[in-house]
Amino acid sequence: MSRKALCIAHLYPDLLNLYADRGNITVLRRRLEWRGYDVDVVRVTHGEVPDFSRYHLVLLGGGSDREQAIVADKLRGCKAEFQSAVQDGLPVLAICGGYQLLGEFYQLPSGEKVPGLALVDMVTEAMPDAPRLIGNIAVWSEEVGVIVGFENHGGRTRHGHRPLGRVLHGHGNDGVSGEEGLRHLRIWGTYVHGPLLPKNPALADAVLRDALAYAHLPDELEPLDDRLEREARAAFAALRMADVAPMLRSEAGSP
Amino acid sequence: MLGIWIGKLILWILMLRGRDATSLPGKVALRIAPGLLRRFGGRVKRVIAVTGTNGKTTTTSLLASMVAETEPVVTNHKGANLAQGIATAFLRACSWTGRLRANTAVLEIDEATLPVVARDLPIGVIVVTNVFRDQLDRYGELDGTLAKLLDGIRQTQATLVLNGDDPLCRYLGLRSSRKVLYYGMRRETARSPRREQMRDGQFCLMCGQPLRYDGFWYGQLGLYRCEGCDFVRPHPLYQGELQGGFLRFSEEGLPALMLDLPAAGLYNAYNVLAAVSAARALGLPSAAIHGGLRAYRPPEGRMQRFDLEAPVTLHLIKNPTGCDSVLDAVVSDARAKLLVIGVNDLAADGRDVSWLWDADFELLVEDARLTCVIATGLRAYDMALRLKYAGFPESRIRLEPDLIAALKEGISSSAAAGAAMHALVTYTLLHPAARWLSERRDQLEPQGALYRTSVS
Ligand SMILES: [Zn+2]
């Protein structure tokens, strides 16, 4: 492998595959390859044990309740290694079910608590009568600007960290706080999928810069031609979230 | 009675105006007479229900076509598989006094609708084609679909005809305590997985342990067995094997049938296998099976062909597994070609378009005969982005959100290049596309006839 090689681990793609996380992996891989990096994507499937010393970035996607419980079970077996890598700055992108897994527990509508990894100070509860939070979503992040996508979760999440951003349209962590996602160390947690990264290239690049820094590589990324991405963001907002459309229209017009 | 009259009246008006009348008459009639389905259910002797994620429209049409060789049949068309579509099918078939000529109905029934209508209809056979992930925002998650199917099945005393290659169907069979007849492909024809294929439900639903596969057909269909308990693919009573353009159908103790396939590909072979297995379960003679296959015409969007200035094939795409089988058929077309891909995000399409990223659009990048893709529909930009990240050159992706403009552009470019055109569209774009393409064919036909006369 060349000097500029990065290793991305996709944890349990066979279990956590509900919301096209394959799309997020594709975006991370392509945006590195277009800039001349070699990328090694490791798919850690249910029969395998992750080796956290090898990875520069970890992606945890979403799955059904049953599958999330299986993953939580598997990851608890290597929790210490995961935890110390994260403390050392290993970037983690955790989406939907993967995001919930980072916390202390996920309480099912039945009242049963599925224990999480407790990597962050966070709990998620699914109330028996509360509706699922479903629909298009836009979030304002100080770090990467507007994040757009789709959310679909029954759980309400509360945590003691910074949020990823403020909800401009949609529900976010719990539907009432106006906050979406979580930022802590190099952890990026969010309910936004759709998948998350194709229409949010600034976020993809921010995550990649974290991974480069963790790999002790220069973390400047050459700009790419993101015209199509900007147009796609603007078209999506114009169609489905008129309230945030002006913010994205001005962005699409910029060079 | 009033419900029937008003329903028939609406049906009659819509048909006079040339409108699509697959749901509205039934919807209005059911509002006036909520017991309408039970009344119709009492007037037929048997109902065969076809449900599942993929292939139920085709399987229903094939089976109805076979039954129609021996007796009159009531059936719902064009995938109108909710209660109002089923009511419309009966309204269409009955007289103004509500009398039915047919004793048998072959009905496509949506997975979530099955438990709602199961008590009203004398369902004697239920065919489940497969259970794939589909329309997440409607059902929540996969487990919900299984629960609804099971609920529906348990309200009947029906014999089940199930796809034994699908572990989720096998689960339904084991949990239903009904008589089950399984169909499946011949064991020796399974292949090892080619790509990162999605396999929903690859965990044993009986004990939670991983399922091991000795071979695959597509999606989660394969030779599965549980590592932790005795959950295993059953030996199918009805077996299929692709041989050239035919499906060899065998059942122990009976001579094998060589069946015509109305459309290419494994995916369609499964539909034929499902329909023929159900026909055998009903005791239809082989003459009716052959005759029904010959008489069958693909409905809208199931590889429907239009001879325009360029040859056009219209396909419905609605979920990753179905989309993959369409992409497979497109790249195996040996002609030079151009694609129009239309994606909408209305309720019937699914409001979340993330499934586009689970479908294997990377297949298109390897197709040297594909010159250009025009992305269209409300989510045209999402489609274009999907192609860009699949590695398809951006210079060969065109954007035209308006469907008709995209079809026009596609046809004229294809004609100029001597290429064939494939249009792949989601549900709410299907009827507009089919309608526009047929109108265009009707406009062209008089000229075509004139031309043919002058050369003969
Ligand atoms: Zn088992």
Describe this structure in words.
- The complex is a heterodimer of chains A (255) and B (456).
- Chain A has 255 residues and is α/β, with parallel strands linked by helices.
- Chain A is built from seven helices and 14 strands.
- Chain A has helices spanning 21-33, 65-76, 79-87, 97-101, 201-214, 227-240, 245-253, and strands at residues 5-11, 38-44, 57-60, 92-95, 105-107, 113-115, 122-125, 133-141, 145-153, 156-159, 165-169, 179-180, 182-184, 187-190.
- In chain A, a hairpin with a 2-residue loop joins β13 and β14 (187-190).
- Chain A is globular and about 50 Å long.
- The mean pLDDT of chain A is 92.
- Chain B has two domains: 2-295, Mur-like, catalytic domain (UDP-N-acetylmuramoyl-L-alanine:D-glutamate ligase, 3-Layer(aba) Sandwich); 302-447, Mur ligase, C-terminal domain (Protein-Tyrosine Phosphatase, Chain A, Alpha-Beta Complex), CATH 3.90.190.
- Helix content of chain B is 40%, strand content 21%.
- Chain B is built from 16 helices and 17 strands.
- The longest helix of chain B has 29 residues, at 427-455.
- The radius of gyration of chain B is 22 Å and the shape is globular.
- Chain B starts with a helix and ends with a helix.
- Residues 135-140 and 448-456 of chain B have low confidence and may be disordered.
- Chains A and B meet through α1, α2, β8 and α6 of A and α14 of B.
